[in-house]
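Re: adenosine-5'-diphosphate structure - here you go.
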Amino acid sequence: MFIYDDKGVVLRTHPNLLHDPYVQEEIEKGIEGYKAWFKVDGKFFVESKKPHKITYYPSFVKRIGGEFYTTTAIFPLPGASKDHVVLGGATFDPIYLKKSFFPEMIEEVLAQKLAEYQGGNPLAMMVYSGDGESSMDLKPIAYSNGWGEGKPEVSRKLEMVFSPLSLGIKYQGTSVKQLGEQWVHRSFIILCILSLLIIGGLILTKRIVGKEMAVARLKSDFVSNVSHELRTPLALIRLYAETLELGRITTQDKKDQYYRIIRKESERLTALINNILDFSRIEAGRKEYEFRETDIAELVRNTLDSYRYQVEQQGFELKESIESNLPEVYVDREAIARALVNLVNNALKYSNQEKFLGVKLYKDNSLVKLEVEDHGIGIARRDQAKIFEKFYRAGDPLVHNTKGSGLGLSLVQHISRAHGGHIEVESTPGRGSKFILSLPLGSRHLEQAHGAA
Ligand code: ADP
């Protein structure tokens, strides 16, 4: 602090500060400096219009450790006469300003703000010099916890006492710009997810609608195929029965031939109706299997026997290869016979020039495999997975001209799965097809397969 009048300057400072050589130098220069300054400008302070006639002079002073901000308050001493220049002055200790005063002030204000607003990112504050236009020329004097890096979001000049310092405020850890960017980023991601969901939804809808349309088309084909298939044998049976009834047929041979046709057609009807009944039971979830220990070789042989005549009648070469001494298999006899009949019927239906039917039964590790092979029209690769779907019939012209319901293979697949096995096909268009029905040995798998069926 100092007092000035035209006789001189008295200046005292805190004894603790005197160990700093810069302070001593400042005192010496200060005394001379004030004398010279107030001699010329002293009147200005006496006539000051400022509140309490106090004028603040900021300056940056040297101390051990660098340059520090301080401010000096200059005022006319109260009670002194107007034409006599008597001034008093006080300079703040710059180290105290930096280390204690500003930090405490900031913490106090922040604590108060924190109590007022709860929630959201906490604030951070800084007192700095410089214009703050860029973070380069910004010289921090004191700042609160969590200031981190960067420029203040909002700043105010500390006018009067602490000019030209400013107080800056921002959110801790992040800036408004970063928050904005984060928000845009988040919105963009949400938009992307929503767009993907919409696109996914559209694709899904298109697929579902496409599938539904395909099923509807297949169903209507099915109805016309089945009615056609029912009508033909019935018409034949009726025709031949009526002819026999009229008694016009005299030769026994002719009669036998007519009886055979009637039997064959009714067998075809039965097979078709069985397929349809099985299919409707499966669809309703009511299909039940009766598993029994079975000599599968005998089952296959018996089933083929009742077909042998028809097969040979149609000009097919039948090649049987049934392994003897196969272990007993736990199966539903009727279902396995029906699967075989369906496969054999297909082999007969979908062959033209080369009429060959091969049936093979053999053990392969823990499986029993039943193969039905033909040298017929074959199945295009893209159709090979689809033929096991219900109602599906390949687009081949021969298939188109052949009666069928599109149910046979879907039944075969259901039967093989119910037995814990599977059905696969190997086929080359124009060369023929081979269907392989694999059944596991033993009965442990059945509980699982049942659950799945
Ligand atoms: P369906 O024979 O009544 O049409 P399936 O379910 O038995 O019905 O067969 C489905 C389709 O698979 C058939 O329409 C046919 O296109 C094809 N297919 C089945 N077996 C054979 C085979 N042995 N050779 C060629 N194509 C076949």
